[in-house]
Amino acid sequence: MMKQIYATHTPDGREVDVKPLFQLVEDILSRASPAVDPLFLTAQTRVETWDDKTQQASFIAMLEALSFTIDRVACEITYKSSSGEDAHATTLSIFNQLSYFPWEAKLVITLAAFALSYGEFWLLAQIYSSNQLAKSVAILKQVPVILEHSASLKPRFDALNNLIRAMTDVTKCIIEFKGLPSVYISHDAAPLVTAMAHIPTAVYWTIRAVIACASQISSLSSLGHEHALMSSTNETWELSTLAHKIKNILDLLNNQLALCYQYIEEKMNLETYQMLLNLLEGVQIDNMKLLKALIYAKEDLQPLLDGSTKRRVNLDVLRRKNVLLLISSLDFPRDELSILEQIYNESRVHATRMEYEIVWIPIVDRFAEWTDPLQSQFETLQTTMPWYSVYSPSLIEKPVIRFIREVWHFRNKPILVVLDPQGKVVSPNAIHMMWIWGSTAFPFTSLREEALWREESWKLELLVDGIDPTILSWIKEGKYIYLYGGTDMEWIRKFTTTARAIASTARIPLEMVYVGKSTKREQVRKCTTAITAEKLSYCWQDLAMVWFFWTRLESMMFSKIQLGSTVDVDPMLREIKKLLSYDKEGGWAVLSKGSFVFVNGHSSSVLPTFNEYDAWKEYVPSKGFDMACSDYHNNLRPDARPCCRFEFSSTVGRIPDTMKCPECLRNMEKYMAFLCCHDESTINALI
Asked: How many CB atoms lie within 10 A of CB 525?
């Protein structure tokens, strides 16, 4: 059967824009329905704008060119359907008449031909009661009698409507294939090749369905309602069978169409991704091109929300400014956001000296369902931010998210990408600079980062600057200051008691500060409560200060690594990494005299050093307490020396491939670990 159809197909290369004609046909078929179906309302709502389109010269010219062909096909359908000729033979005859046209044009022309008679029938049904001419013609066609028995003919009308809907849906789908952008999908693309192989079959069965529908209208007009009632069951079954077949074909075509759009989307995403790479490498006059490519390129809406006024604004507010792109998921740590907000607000005071803008770019899983709780979480987070933010996560396209993850190494932990006024990336992640130096790091370039590190040295201010002014005042007074941490209360009691006793014996002014641990927040809270109650030392009651201390310390390490430093050539990085490593294994202490740090040690070496005070106290008068303690500690070989360990969350982005041990300078082994630092509050919530 299909061989016969293919034999009639000899297109001459003519191009026919069938979309306007199909829209007109769809409007006729929807308005001519005996009972208006809600699914057809979308077609009916186009009629106001359609009146203007029909006046267009190109459309009129197209109608003039096709009107003769449409009339010929209409006559063929009317004659063959009323004479009872075989449906396949009639369909084949129509294919022969339309042999020079492409597949979609054959289908739309045939539907247009059917719409003439079908529209005429129902036009008479709708106006015969108010128009005498229509009434006379309607009587000739037995329209009033048929409508009088419409209730008994309802199953047949319903089957007719279902089939017509299936016919229009298939036609719409086939036209959509024709309109796919050839720039992104070629004719030899696999999903399109498969679809094109099924389109001739779809066109054949849809035209067969047109013949069946025309036969129904013809039988109603010529044979009267009595014959229609008698044959209603068989006719309804035939229409329903055809509708089922066409819907199956439609499902197959829709699946292929979805694959085609997926193919196109992948091509477009790749193009956008490559464009972003090119923008990074090229030289721009300002930052607008890159910001539009990242956030929103069109001009039809305002893509930003101003955090200070809570009003929507255009991207132009960022033109030729230093822009810090704050990129994060919706799980933005509260402590992090609070301290970043504090730093930002302080920078506004010195706006003339440090002019930069922050823009929050929320990254969400575009494949996951966007729910009301997620929207609420987003809005709550957005409301707390005093800077600009992208109005909706949906504005950030998939290729942009891929670019941010692959090029800027975003995982889920917030990063701060810095763009200069020309849109050049001057720092791939300035969040570490922000935590260490705050707005002093402006303009947040890698050169500025290197300059700031050249001004630093391993001293106590580096660890506590910007956190606690009390400690800074002790430093100015030249006091001995011991920072210590861990969650082993037995060790804490021994350390603080012994340290205080030795300080009393040596007659040195001593202050001690408990700075907790980088994890296990609830245990740190309990230790803080116990230390305060037992008056063992000074504590940070605000756990955000504890979090900031450890975050700054980690940022120092990441900043150094980002700049290419290694422990064998950078003594400061070595001490930072030691302290971070000690935090993973028990207690630790950093001992200083004013700014000068003379001991940075693990609990396994610091407490024995104090316990063996009698062995080195004789050197205190000559060397000073600090150097005597340092020399003895450095020469001590503890029995149980802990392993040096670093843990990098998979959300931090850039993870070093290799690391050297800060203790022995050998290359460290690399493992993959699964970690759950549950607090008791979390456990209790699960019980």
From this structure: 17
The per-residue pLDDT for range 564-598, each reduced to its tens digit, is 877 667 889 989 988 988 888 778 999 999 999 99
- Bridge partners for 326 per DSSP: 360, 416
Domain residue spans in the chain? 1-33+50-268, 287-443, 460-675
Q: Are 383 and 337 in contact (CB under 8 A)?
A: no
C-alpha span between 414 and 88 (Å, rounded): 66
Q: Which residues contact 571 (CB under 8 A, 6 or more apart)?
A: 458
Interatomic CA distance for residues 600 and 70, integer angstroms: 92
Q: What share of the chain is helix, strand, coil (3-state, %, to 5)?
A: 60, 10, 30
Burial of residue 106 (CB within 10 Å: 0-12, 13-18, 19+) is buried
Residue 324's beta-bridge partner residues?
A: 358, 418
* pTM exceeds 0.70 for this model: yes
Tokens 């009916």 locate to 44
Report the candidate in 637, 639, 632, 638 with the shortest Cα–Cα distance to residue 502: 632
CA 556 to mean position of chain CA atoms:
30
Contact 73, 21 (CB under 8 A): no
Protein fold of 287-443: Glutaredoxin (3.40.30)
Q: Whole-angstrom Cα distance, residue 137 to residue 133?
A: 6
How many angstroms separate the CA atoms of 149 and 141, rounded? 15
Report the distance separating Cα 638 and Cα 642, nearest Å.
9
Residues 6+ apart with CB under 8 A from 685: none
Does residue 120 come out as left (phi exceeding 0), alpha (psi in the -120 to 50 range) or beta?
A: alpha
Digit-coded pLDDT (tens) for 619-636: 999 999 999 999 999 888
